[in-house]
Design brief:
The chain is an alpha/beta fold and 270 residues long. It has one domain: NAD(P)-binding Rossmann-like Domain (Rossmann fold), CATH 3.40.50.720. The protein is 50% helix and 14% strand. It contains nine helices and seven strands. It has helices spanning 28-39, 51-64, 81-93, 116-144, 164-186, 204-210, 221-233, 243-255, 257-266; strands spanning 19-23, 43-48, 68-73, 98-101, 147-153, 192-198, 238-241. It has a seven-stranded parallel beta sheet, sandwiched between helices. α2 links the parallel β2 (43-48) and β3 (68-73). The chain is globular and about 50 Å long. Bound molecules: NADPH dihydro-nicotinamide-adenine-dinucleotide phosphate and (3beta,8alpha,9beta)-3-hydroxycholest-5-en-7-one. Residues 24-30, 48-50, 53, 75-77, 102-105, 125, 151, 153, 198, 200-201, 203, 205-206 line the site of NADPH dihydro-nicotinamide-adenine-dinucleotide phosphate. It is an enzyme of class 1 (oxidoreductase). Its main location: endoplasmic reticulum. This is 11-beta-hydroxysteroid dehydrogenase 1.
Length: 270
Amino acid sequence: FYFYSAPENFNEEMLRGKRVIVTGASSGIGEQMAYHLARMEAHLLLTARTEAKLQKVVKRCLELGAASARYVSGSMEDTTFPEVVVKEAENTWGGLDVLILNHIGYSYFNYFNGDVGHVRKLLEVNFLSYVAMTVSALPMLKESEGSIVVVSSVAGKTAAPFSAPYSATKFALDGFFSSLRHEFIIEKVNVSITLCILGYIDTENAVRAVSHAIRDTPAPKEECALEIVKSGVLRRRELHYPSRAVGSLLLLRDIAPDFLDSLIRSSYKQ
Ligand SMILES: NC(=O)C1=CN([C@@H]2O[C@H](COP(=O)(O)OP(=O)(O)OC[C@H]3O[C@@H](n4cnc5c(N)ncnc54)[C@H](OP(=O)(O)O)[C@@H]3O)[C@@H](O)[C@H]2O)C=CC1
Ligand SMILES: CC(C)CCC[C@@H](C)[C@H]1CC[C@H]2[C@@H]3C(=O)C=C4C[C@@H](O)CC[C@]4(C)[C@H]3CC[C@]12C
């Protein structure tokens, strides 16, 4: 169906020697992706703000078998930082195979408080920096016929309460990257774009933010991270994880949107 052939089955050797950038790799799902990629013997460039955490993750990646692992620390609130990260990859590897965009800025989980400045900042960190990373990395990705992986959420396909700014940034990713995917196909640019639609995952930050308010049991971050890596390498269009829960949610969204909305509200503790 696509003009390029996408492999059917995943094999860990597909990552051996591949040059991969992972953003938001100091904790949560990004950290777990780094460990999977390390086991698969990829070259890693990790980024996030906290240098001390990145040092520990890099050390662990080297122990796990990464072909190489380094980090560059900085904040995606800084509009020059995306290019700094990509330049680091260019200088060390002279190319890039996979760009995994995963970081998010801090969101409060509550009624929208009218703080427009927060929305602006979150759009910069969660959305515009993804665009800037893609623009900088695209020449190398075209050259390698590589892959872009964009980590989003069910909140980027259907809205839930207490996450208005966050949800807006995730919807923006879908609009931008799904449009770009069309253009790549039209222009025969052989760079895949995988949008990852995740449900509630058991990362420390997410559990701290929502466990008091949400009844659901979160899915494991280790398995989630592996599924993201696999779907990117297999050049899938979208990943739905956990697959049944996200699948039913999206089906309901299209056939019974009011019912889905009431289900979502009833999953919140009163
Ligand atoms: N956990 C969940 O329930 C769900 C998560 N997702 C998505 O999965 C992805 C990962 O989420 P999760 O692992 O839970 O998140 P975490 O909060 O665990 O990790 C976020 C990462 O982003 C980094 N980060 C935070 N602020 C900035 C900044 N200003 N500039 C650069 N990096 C920054 C953090 O490191 P540092 O603080 O050192 O900068 C950290 O490495 C996100 O895209 C999220 O939207 C989607 C659905 C559900
Ligand atoms: C049918 C229902 C069970 C489905 C409802 C699922 C809703 C409630 C779940 C699914 C995705 C979840 C959000 C998410 O994507 C990531 C984060 C970032 C974290 O740092 C703070 C919490 C936050 C905003 C989650 C909040 C709760 C969300 C909206």
